[in-house]
Specification:
By secondary structure, the chain is an alpha/beta fold. Helix content is 34%, strand content 20%. It has helices spanning 62-70, 96-102, 114-117, 124-136, 140-153, 159-162, 172-184, 202-219, 230-236, 254-259, 264-271, 310-313, 317-320, 337-348, and strands at residues 20-31, 34-46, 51-55, 78-86, 89-90, 107-110, 190-194, 222-226, 239-244, 247-253, 330-331. The protein binds iron/sulfur cluster. Residues 263-264, 301, 303-304, 307, 309-310, 313, 318, 323, 333-335 line the site of iron/sulfur cluster.
Length: 358
């Protein structure tokens, strides 16, 4: 688990029109084997100054959602329906030229792998300065000055000298910082970070997450943080969205979702990760089975083939009736509040012979 300082800054009051609003988003890819429903009716809002965490296994639709927001999805063979509005502007129907202007300027992305995101042929400084020149019309000299300033801001020592280094001359942590500098050089109002610290050791990971929060405090940007690490989520985000099979299955303020999770899939995610209070010999409990094929998702609740609580709901309801996610805090599950409390209490009860809880 990553140790980052908890943010005590009070969240801004929600406005009537959310800064980023995603409504009933569907993303489908046509492949030789059929139509893949990568995102299946997703809705969420994000305000300026807030951080939304999105968690879920591989293939749950997290990254596809973010690529759709940025307009970076493969356009051929992709069908997008629903709406994505950023500061009141509809993005799903915006022409590529308009999206290109917004990317880097109003919205930017930090990718997981800095080696592939940075070109080996250009200096780090040039790769930070170029988008700044493009979006602001700054001179080469001013853009270079800005690149040095950004490298300094993200904690690269001797920034004035290192600005002329090539990416291979940087360590992994420094490259990731350089990529963050590149993403932030135009002060984007929306920052999407897709597993930004996965490849880094825990110390650098904590520094980078602190850096993102510091920059957010300075600029008031909205951040979407995609991760599989619930430790990172607990210390970094304000709100949490849990995704499964292209759908949101639970959402709410992060403390509420992690403190009293309401969906069996969230219970499974929490049970499959180590915790500081676990006994060292306490085994992790993986979620049985595998995520469903998005070519032929199961009817009813998409989690039912892996869920241990189908019988408690009773009848065929889980297999035939799709549970909807209620507005605000909630979980897309047919279990009653009483059944959830009982199931959660059973999971948290100490096991015989073990001091820890799960
Ligand atoms: Fe499990 Fe049924 Fe709830 Fe789906 S709706 S998570 S199958 S109990």
């Amino acid at each position: 688990m990553t140790a980052t300082s908890p943010d005590t800054t009070p969240p801004p009051a929600p406005s009537a029109t959310p800064f980023l609003s995603v409504r009933d988003l569907h993303v489908r890819f046509t492949t030789e084997d059929g139509v893949v429903k990568a995102v299946d009716g997703l809705s969420f809002d994000l305000e300026r100054g807030r951080t939304l965490g999105i968690v879920g296994e591989s293939g749950s639709g997290k990254s596809v959602t973010n690529l759709a927001v940025l307009g970076l999805h493969e356009r051929r063979g992709t069908e997008i329906t629903g709406t994505i509005t950023l500061d009141g502007r509809e993005l799903t129907t915006a022409p590529e030229s308009a999206l290109e202007k917004l990317r880097g300027n109003k919205m930017a992305m930090i990718f997981q792998d800095s080696l592939t995101a940075l070109s080996p042929y250009y200096t780090v400084g040039r790769q930070i300065a170029e988008p700044y020149r493009k979006h602001t019309g700054a001179s080469r000299r001013d853009a270079r000055r800005r690149a040095v300033e950004m490298l300094d801001k993200v904690g690269i020592p001797n920034a004035a000298r290192r600005v002329d280094d090539y990416p291979h001359q940087f360590s992994g942590g420094m490259r990731q910082r350089a990529m963050i500098a590149m993403a932030l050089v135009c002060d984007p109002e929306l920052l999407i970070a897709d597993e930004p610290t996965t490849a880094l050791d825990v110390t650098v990971q904590a520094q980078i997450l602190d850096l993102l929060k510091d920059l957010q405090r300075q600029t008031g940007s909205a951040i979407v943080l995609v991760t599989h690490d619930l430790g990172v989520v607990a210390h970094t985000v304000d709100d949490l969205l849990v995704m499964y099979a292209g759908r949101a299955v639970e959402r709410g303020p992060v403390r509420e979702v992690l403190g009293a999770p309401g969906h069996p899939y969230t219970w499974g995610l929490l049970g499959s990760m180590p915790r500081l209070t676990s006994d060292v010999d306490e085994p992790l409990v993986p979620i049985p089975g595998a995520p469903p094929s998005l070519l032929t998702p199961p009817p009813g609740c998409p989690f039912h083939p892996r869920c241990a609580h189908v019988a408690e709901v009773g009848g065929d309801r889980c297999r035939t009736e799709r549970p909807e996610l209620p507005a605000g805090r909630g979980a897309a599950c047919h279990l009653t509040p009483g059944q959830r409390r009982t199931a959660l209490a059973a999971r948290l009860a100490p096991r015989p012979g073990r001091g820890g809880t799960r």
